[in-house]
Design a protein that fits this description.
Mean pLDDT: 74
Helix content: 25-40%
Strand content: 15-25%
Largest sheet: 5 strands, antiparallel
Order of helices and strands: HHEEEHHEHEEEEEEHHEHH
Low-confidence stretches: 194-232, 264-268, 290-294, 296-300
Oligomer: single chain
Length: about 350
């Protein structure tokens, strides 16, 4: 009886049914990840707006934004509302308008023929909302690119290499090969890794080089995968700590990063090494020798180093308070920018 109940055809059908939920589960996971990323972006945008003293402007009519009196600059803006029951204004939406001028973007957002405008109009008509408000902060092109660097550009893990020549052992970083030879912005960050004495880190003889990657690591939530591949991006805002924002104005992004990551035996054509350069040199040594690194007092841990960069036209690069802009977005001070003037 059991044999007749479980025919081979029935078993095949059952296996097919099992595959469908798995595929759907992966789709749901991807949708949740995208939703989480959007929520983080919204929270960052709201935090920036709340960090400066901006007053809410009362939205009066649907034709108000047909005029060009607002701003033709790039800006961060927010849309808020209150109700008949609570006078305090709450955020409905916030955005960094880094590609479209503020005036045009708000006219699009408050257009009742657009999906965003229909939502607002419907809320008011149905008395869900009492009044609608907006606030905005003008930003420069370079500040807009800086915020893009933070929220849209992935971190790139930097590998370390060990070279042995006779009895001397030297360590240095292996930067990715696609660093642009143009002007722009770049950031350096770090994350703590354990098991520095990984057997995968083998020495090299003479002039041989090998991209001995940092150990594999996985974040607490399982979302971070940093296998040391220099060409692989890592989207993880919470696990990588910014320590430096560089402005490649006098030199290219490639030249600036090479200057920071070069070994201690190199000659510095631009004077003494900066504090972030000394930090990288010490971390590169302590990662292999077991000495205490500056970002971790535990001798069993070292720092995984990351970089990210974005091109900015030279004519716009010097405009704006870039370090303060990034510090406001991430919510903490950049350790090695406070000691240097940019």
């Amino acid at each position: 009886v059991l044999d007749s109940a479980f025919q081979e055809g029935d078993m095949d059908t059952g296996l097919e049914d099992i595959q469908v939920p798995k595929s759907r589960a992966l789709q749901i996971q991807a949708e949740l990840s995208e939703l989480t990323q959007k929520r983080e972006t919204m929270q960052t945008t709201i935090r920036i707006l709340e960090s400066v003293q901006l007053n809410w402007e009362h939205f009066q009519t649907w034709t108000e934004f047909s005029r060009l009196h607002l701003s033709n600059k790039l800006a961060i803006f927010g849309v808020g509302y209150n109700t008949r029951w609570r006078e305090d204004i709450r955020y409905h939406y916030a955005e960094i308008s880094s590609q479209v001028p503020l005036g045009k973007r708000l006219r699009e957002y408050f257009n009742p023929e657009k999906p965003e405008g229909r939502v607002i109009m419907t809320k008011v008509q149905k008395m869900n909302w009492k009044s609608v408000y907006y606030k905005f902060l003008d930003i420069t092109i370079s500040e807009a690119r800086c915020l893009e660097l933070h929220m849209e550009v992935d971190w790139i893990p930097v590998s370390q290499s060990q070279v042995m020549s006779s009895s001397k052992v030297s360590f240095h970083y292996l930067l990715p090969g696609h660093i642009p030879k143009t002007h722009g912005l770049y950031a350096i960050g770090y994350g703590t890794l354990s098991a520095c004495n990984n057997p995968a880190h083998t020495s090299l003889q003479a002039d041989e080089e090998d991209s001995c990657s940092l150990p594999q690591c996985e974040g607490e939530n399982g979302s971070e995968q940093c296998d040391g591949g220099a060409e692989q991006g890592v989207r993880t805002w919470s696990t990588v700590t910014y320590c430096y924002l560089g402005i490649a104005e006098d030199r290219t992004i490639q030249q600036c990063l090479f200057q920071h990551f070069q070994g201690s035996g190199k000659h510095y054509a631009y004077g003494e090494p900066s504090s972030v350069t000394r930090f990288l040199q010490e971390n590169c040594r302590s990662a292999r020798t077991g000495q205490d690194s500056e970002c971790s007092k535990d001798s069993q841990q070292c720092c995984a180093i990351y970089v990210k960069f974005i091109e900015v036209e030279l004519d716009f690069l010097s405009a704006g308070s870039l370090v303060e802009c990034l510090e406001t977005a991430v919510g903490y001070s950049l350790k090695f920018n406070n000691k240097e003037t940019l």
